[in-house]
Write a structure and sequence with these properties.
5-stranded mixed β-barrel; rod-shaped; alpha+beta; 179 residues; 5 helices; OB fold (Dihydrolipoamide Acetyltransferase, E2P); 2 domains
């Protein structure tokens, strides 16, 4: 067995062990390239270095092709889904602004009794309501909710208008009643 064959065999074993020790596809592409180079080294003798050049080229080409051809398929099959957290349950809920939220400044909102940092593309004054659109780290991304659309936050009903005459109207006794 030539030195090149031993090197390719060791590389195949190292890449397979590395792949087996990880949960993602990291080195299987290189294991395939090293295996092809090992097979070529068995077929092509050293020949003054020409065989080695062919082996290295085969390793690089097969590894690159395997990576380009199979990586998208592997990603699709392995499924890189986002794992929801407890905080994700807050998306879509309503919160009340306690410190003004401005497009250029992070404000504060209260959501289910907890105070959160919040940012928005809109101006949200303290006391207004907002809807949680997303969560970035420990910040809520919020949008304004029109006044009067949040249950329990209806604006107070307007008082009936009174005229100035009604305000100053004095109850005077009837002339006939006084006699």
């Amino acid at each position: 067995m030539e030195i090149a064959q031993i090197v390719w065999l060791v590389l195949v074993v190292v890449f397979v062990i590395l792949e087996a020790s990880t949960a993602t596809l990291v080195s299987v592409w290189f294991a395939a390239g090293a295996l092809v180079a090992l097979l070529i080294s068995l077929l092509l003798p050293w020949n003054g270095g020409i065989g080695l050049i062919v082996q290295v080229a085969a390793f690089l080409v097969v590894s690159g092709l395997a990576l380009l051809a199979l990586r998208p398929l592997a990603r699709k099959l392995m499924g890189t889904q986002k794992v929801p957290t407890n905080a994700d349950a807050n998306i879509g809920k309503l919160a009340q602004v306690v410190i003004d939220v401005l497009p250029e400044r992070i404000g504060r909102v209260v959501l289910e009794g907890l105070e959160w940092a919040a940012k928005s593309n809109a101006v949200l004054p303290a006391g207004s309501w907002c809807k949680v659109l997303a969560i970035e780290g420990a910040k809520l991304i919020v949008a304004p909710v029109p006044p009067g659309t949040v249950a329990g936050t209806q604006p107070a009903p307007a008082k009936p208008k009174t005229t100035q005459a009604e305000v100053f109207e004095v109850d005077t006794p009837n002339e006939e009643e006084g006699k």
